[in-house]
Amino acid sequence: MPRGLLITLEGLDGSGKTTQIRRLAAWMQRRSLTPAITRQPGGTPTGDRIRELLLDSRSAGLAPLAEMALMFADRAQAISEVIEPALAAGKIVLCDRFTDSTEAYQGGGRELGSATVLELHRLLCGNLQPDLTLLLLPSLDASLARARGRNQRVLETTGQDESRFEREQEEFYRRVWQKYREIAAREPNRVIVIEGNLAIDEVHEQIVEAVAERILAFGPKT
């Protein structure tokens, strides 16, 4: 059976990744494709517990290296439990964040550097690379405003606090933003940048165009 296709969506919190993954999955399902959908951190029972620790504002004292180690613990579990089995079964996997996020947030935002992130990815994740990455880059101000508003609504309706990263200063996010741009420049064949404060439908159209081309090239079966 042909190996499946790993498609990741990246971007700042509030860039619209979750909305676009849902729309992309629906587009695939209308074409008789059945993608496996997951997210990082999270996506497994262990990963969901790690996610709660990482994103809760009560974890404010978490050291940058500990934060990065938890990200990779979550990712290694997700690869073993969800991603690799789906790829081996020939499925398309849609993943909300992957190692690019760690390189951007911990490597860039926390200033731990790219080399450490990439070496840990090689050692702990078998150097598994996405076949296609869709990087959503609306303006920094728009992303942060949406993310903070969403987290406040979630807190008010569910009591779940996932605002630890949104409490960072703007300079932290500028470093994250710049690192994402560096990744895209380094790997232009893998990373498709969708930039600007576009309407949801406009972003979806660009995503579908890129994904259709990659599916045609790789031809995974579901």
Q: Can you give a write-up of this model?
A:
The chain is an alpha/beta fold and 222 residues long. It has a single domain (5-218), classed as P-loop containing nucleotide triphosphate hydrolases (Rossmann fold, 3-Layer(aba) Sandwich), CATH 3.40.50.300. It has eight helices and five strands, in the order E-H-E-H-H-E-H-H-E-H-H-E-H. It has a five-stranded parallel β-sheet, sandwiched between helices. Helix 1 crosses helix 8, helix 2 (45-55) packs antiparallel against helix 3 and helix 4 (99-109) crosses helix 7. 37% of the residues are buried. The mean pLDDT is 90.
Question: What descriptors fit this protein?
Answer:
222 residues, alpha/beta, Rossmann fold, globular
**Overall geometry:** globular
CATH class: Alpha Beta
Mean pLDDT: 90
CATH superfamily: P-loop containing nucleotide triphosphate hydrolases
Q: What pattern of helices and strands is seen along the backbone?
A: EHEHHEHHEHHEH
Can you tell me the CATH topology? Rossmann fold
- In terms of DSSP E residues, the strand content is 5-15%
Q: Which architecture would the CATH scheme give at its second level?
A: 3-Layer(aba) Sandwich
Content-based structural category: alpha/beta
Based on CA atoms alone, the radius of gyration comes out at: 17 Å
Extract low-pLDDT stretches: none
Distance between the termini: 10 Å
Sheet with the most strands, sense and barrel status: 5 strands, parallel
